[in-house]
Amino acid sequence: MNEQYKLFIAAIFSLLSLGVIAGESYSCKLDSAKMGNWLPSSIQISFNDEKQLTRLYAADYPDYELELVEITRWTKEFRELKYIAHLPVEGGGTYRTRHSITILPKLNNKIVYSLNFYEYSTHFTASGQCKKK
After folding, report:
1. What pTM value is reported for the model?
2. CA–CA dist 66, 43 (Å, integer)
């Protein structure tokens, strides 16, 4: 294979890989301190060009199972996710919970994170700001 052809192939693969890396990524800080350990203090969220979730991570929170996360709304005004999970409880057992995460791009990427318990009327909500990467 001549060098120009190799260079051309490498350039094509580089451009294709940009499509996978492109999309939207957010690094968010939440005012969750008053909520105890029920909500994360920061969260990272990434989507690919097809508006599919590729990352949902919080260092101080149990791992999210991406296959259980549903993107419920994607507009110019909203990026909204729903996640049904079972949070571990000290001493054993779990609580079934619904997490709602909304990013508001038109409001300087404000984020609102709500956690609701199915078995109880208890819920927690924190808001904050995201930086779009």
Report:
1. 0.78
2. 14
